[in-house]
Every structure is written in C-alpha cells, then in structure tokens.
Amino acid sequence: MSIVYLVSISIILFSNNQVTPCRVEECAGWFQKTKDYENLVPKATERYCQVLQTYLKCMNDTQRFCHGNLRFHSSELVMRRHWKEFECEKWESCNDSNPNKKRPVNTCYFNPPPSNRKIKYCSLFGDPHIIMFNGSIQTCSEEGARPLVDNRYFLVQVTNKNVRGEALTTTVTKVTVLIRKHNCTSSLTYEATSDEEGLPRGFVDGTTYQMIPNSNSNSNSVEVLWQDNNYVEVSLHFIHSSIHIRRQGPYLSVSVKAPTIVLETEGDVANELCWTGCRKSAQISAEKAIEKPKSFAECYNRRVHVLKKVAEDRCKNVGTSGTFYDACLFDLMFTGDDYLVQLARHAQSDFRRLAPHHIQSHLIQQRVRIQKQSSNNETETFQKCLPSASKSIISSAFLAVILLLIPMI
C-alpha cells in the first residue's frame, strides 16, 4: 500500500470528521432528550410519530456522511421499523404525501402523569421554615424577594418582611406566580399579598382559567381553584403541577408540587429556595433555640413570648407532630402569634396530602439525625450574636457624653 494512498485516506477521514461529520449522535441526542422531556414511550400515538418523523428527517439529512457508521444504520433500521409498526402515516400531521395538508401549529400536548417517585414537593411557611425538594428543612431569616421555583413553565417568587419589628423575625407577605407562555397557555400572573382581606379568586387580568388553545376540548390547561379567602390552588394541569397558597392573618405560606422533568432547568438554580435553601448566614438552628430559648433570645435580641411548656401544650392540641411540631414550637415561643400555629398545622396537612411518600420518609429521617447531633453538641453555643439593645444604649450614651466634653477640653 503506497504512502500516497494512506495520506489520501487520512485526509478524507479528517475532512469528514471536521467539515461534514456524521450527525448520528446529534440526531439521537435530540430524540432521546425529547422523549425524556415529554415522557414519551414507543407506541402508536400521534405525538410519538411526530417526534419519530423529525428524528428520521435528521438522519436522512446526514445520511451521505455516515457511510460505514454502524450505529447510523442500526438506529435508522429500528426507527423505520417503528414508523411502519405504529402506522405513523395514518396521522395527518405525519403524512407528507398529502400536498394540501396543514400541519397543526402550536399544538398543546399534556404531559403523561408522572410516577410518584418523580414528584417533588417544596413548602415555605411560618417564621419562616422551608422544606426543600430534597426533603431537608431549614429555618431562616431573610428579607426581600427571592425565587422559590423558576423553570421554563412557571416562576414562584416570595417576599419576606419583618412584620413584628423584632430582630430575625421574618414571614412571607407576598407570593407571585408567573405562568410563562406555552402552547397550552398564554402568560398569566397570580399575585397574593398578606395585607388584602382575602386571597384573590383569579389571575391579575381577571380570568380564572385558561382553556386549551386550538382545541374542541372543554378541559382547562391552567386554572385558579379558589377554596376560600385563606386557601387557593393554582393548578397547571398540562404539566401535572400545582401551587398552593394559604393565608392566616398577616402571613402567607406557599407549597409547590411538580414532576422532576418540569423542574429541571439548564439555568442556575443557586438562587432558588426550593433547591438550595436559605443563605448560610441567614440560617437559624430552630432545634437548638427550642432547647435553649433564653440563650437564643439573648444572642439574637429576641423575646421569649410564650414559655416552652405552654407552647408544647398548644402545638400538641392543634395536632402538629415531628418537624411541624418543632416549627410550631419555635414560632409560638418567639412570636407568641397563634396565626403561625395555624400555618404550621395547615403546612402539615398539605405535606401529608401532597408530598410523595419518599420525601415524607426523608423528612422524618432528617429530624432524627438533627436530634442526635443536638444531643451530641449540648455545649455548643450560638454564633454571630447581635449586640444587645442595652449595650447599644450604654455605648450611645457614653459616646454622647464624650462628644459634649470635647469642646470643654
């Protein structure tokens, strides 16, 4: 075999890989990603046939660059067999032989119902406490607006404010739900604030539901399910997701239930509370505060409004247990506000009704771990204490005296 021949073959192979490569990996990647995203399985449905048709067109476009590629030929053979087996040409949207055919534009497809293991749940309530998508819970004190959940379908943003005038005491006072434009819905906004008399019955534009566009079906793709002035569910039926908002007095709580595939995003989730929780500097050890209320109050300039024994009786009487019992104790002891007790009770009810079993089990296990850690670190003290009000007053008075004496020196 001559050197010239070898060089020629090398140039051809190099050129094919660099200039006009076989795109079988790209076609297969798109096909698999679309199947996963829409929970599609190989069967005789119009949607699967549409995706299959796009895949086969992608393979056809790259065919002349894939001679000798075993994966290309085996994949194309399997997919053409699917096309024939599922009789995809019977669907008008997949039948290219009809020159007068009008393809459906922006068709709304409901995602198939996900399995229980692929459901995630997040909740924010009380002073405030957050149950994250991974089943962990945090107590924290943050002021301002932050996204709770943000993905291609919807955004839930919460605003925390200090409504009591005490240090490190914040609660949810505003919840904004933005439903992004999609084939199944137009852009919609739901907004709830704690200073209103009750939760709104519909979106800000006055509507309460969105029917499926370009469809003869009477089904709603999105709707506001108003229960009463204190409870509303915003349901996104086409992606099997829901946002639950509750109100008690001047406080709000919010819960999100959605499939994993809906929540996945290519963007950064570092700022989303349901994924990453509160900033480390804003986190509070609620368990330690309950065990050592006096030390906690002195460290963070808080007041113990209700004695621990009284709070225990009250929280038991409303039926809270486990993590929600701890949240109830913390909120009642350090605010004295019974509205927060009711929010803890409702948060527990929603969690048991909406959260999948594996997340409920994880939350129980985490509480046991935290209790063990607390018992092993009984001597651990609170960190980053705030200067006490009395010390601040004394320091201010001392500084004022010094300033008055300076002109006399």
From TrEMBL:
Does the record bear Signal in its keywords?
Answer: yes
Q: Where in the cell is it found?
A: Cell membrane
- Which residues belong to any copy of the Repulsive guidance molecule C-terminal domain? 118-356
Give any Gene Ontology cellular component. plasma membrane
| UniProt-listed InterPro entries | RGM (IPR040287), RGM_C (IPR009496), RGM_N (IPR010536)
The residue ranges of the Repulsive guidance molecule N-terminal domain are 22-90
Keywords, sorted A to Z: Cell membrane, Glycoprotein, GPI-anchor, Lipoprotein, Membrane, Signal
Q: Where this protein primarily resides, as one coarse class? A: membrane
Membrane topology field = Lipid-anchor; GPI-anchor
The biological process GO terms on file are: BMP signaling pathway
| Signal peptide residues on this chain, from the entry's feature table | 1-21
Q: Name one GO molecular function term.
A: coreceptor activity
State the similarity comment: Belongs to the repulsive guidance molecule (RGM) family.
- PANTHER family, per database record: REPULSIVE GUIDANCE MOLECULE B HOMOLOG DRAG-1 (PTHR31428:SF6), RGM DOMAIN FAMILY MEMBER DRAG-1 (PTHR31428)
Protein name per Swiss-Prot or TrEMBL: RGM domain family member B
The record lists the organism as: Caenorhabditis tropicalis
